[in-house]
Amino acid sequence: MINRKSKDEIKRMRHAGHIVALVHQEMKKAVVPGISTKELDDIAMRVIKENKAVPTFLGYNGFPASICTSINEKIVHGIPSKDEILKEGDIIAIDVGATYGGMVGDSAWSYAVGEISPEKQRLMRVTEEALYAGISKMRAGNVLDDISGAIEDVANREKLGIVRNYGGHGVGHQMHEDPFLFNYRVGNHTKIKTGYVIAIEPMLNLGGDDVVVLDDQWSVLTKDGQPSAHFEHTVLCTDDEPILMTTLMD
Ligand code: MG
Ligand code: MG
């Protein structure tokens, strides 16, 4: 069942999303060659706690950190480590969740570490474009496939791989609520209604679609070793324009 969020729930979620955006603001500054992903996790944890929120990911199905850090061919769910050091030319997807007043905000962003190759620049630019193409379809009366299809069309235009078995999701009291949202058309004609909040999150690859999961049971990688990018916002459907819940508030 898909829940429509009340005004009060939306207010708390917006605050949670603001805290997530504060973390990303710090990540953007901190992502430089030489920093470890554990140090990034420490910064995220500090920002979340300073703002009286709870790191949603920590302990989620046993996940051991406050953020997911996925470098280059890692797509999602990378575990921060003191031994994993960013280097010039990497791209890193950082996924952040914060719970405030019992409500969750969820947003991921890919960052360049120093100078990156033109192909990685294209991958990041197009994946971000696919995110906003999907967000533009988050309107009452549209169906879930409209969002999925908008993402798929951008990916296909640029001949990027589309991660098939991971995708967006409803979000609210829990990080993962109904519905699941594919990043390509699956014939889902469920109508989008005012008050729905969905995390829209394209994951696109420079190579093919296929993925493998590491022995740590978390890290998801591209099978062909090509880089992957990930951009995500938590988005509210209104009677009018969709509202981004995971941006900084004024
Ligand atoms: Mg996320
Ligand atoms: Mg998500």
What's this model, at a glance?
With 250 residues, the chain is of the alpha+beta class. It has helices at 7-30, 37-50, 118-135, 144-157, and strands spanning 54-55, 67-71, 74-76, 91-100, 103-112, 161-162, 168-170, 177-181, 197-200, 203-205, 211-213, 220-222, 228-230, 233-236, 243-244. The protein has one domain: Creatinase/methionine aminopeptidase superfamily (Creatine Amidinohydrolase).
What features would you describe in this structure?
The chain is an alpha+beta fold and 250 residues long. It has a single domain (7-244), classed as Creatinase/methionine aminopeptidase superfamily (Creatine Amidinohydrolase), CATH 3.90.230. The chain is built from 4 helices and 15 strands. The protein has helices spanning 7-30, 37-50, 118-135, 144-157, and strands at residues 54-55, 67-71, 74-76, 91-100, 103-112, 161-162, 168-170, 177-181, 197-200, 203-205, 211-213, 220-222, 228-230, 233-236, 243-244. The strands form 4 sheets. Strands 8-7-9-14-15 form a 5-stranded antiparallel beta sheet. Strands 1, 2, 4 and 5 form a 4-stranded antiparallel beta sheet that branches. The structure holds magnesium ion (MG) (2 copies).
Ligand identities? magnesium ion
Annotated CATH topology: Creatine Amidinohydrolase
- The percentage of residues in β strands lies in 15-25%
Low-confidence spans: pLDDT under 50, at least 5 residues? Answer: none
**Gap from first CA to last CA:** 33 Å
Strand order of the largest sheet: 8-7-9-14-15
Q: Roughly what is the average pLDDT, rounded to an integer?
A: 98
CATH architecture: Alpha-Beta Complex
- Multimerization status: single chain
| Share of helical residues | 25-40%
- What name goes with the CATH superfamily? Creatinase/methionine aminopeptidase superfamily
Number of strands: 15
Regarding CATH, which class? Alpha Beta
Structural class label:
alpha+beta
User: What is the global morphology?
Assistant: globular
What is the number of helices?
4
Largest β sheet strand count, sense and barrel closure: 5 strands, antiparallel
Tell me the series of helices and strands, N- to C-terminal.
Answer: HHEEEEEHHEEEEEEEEEE
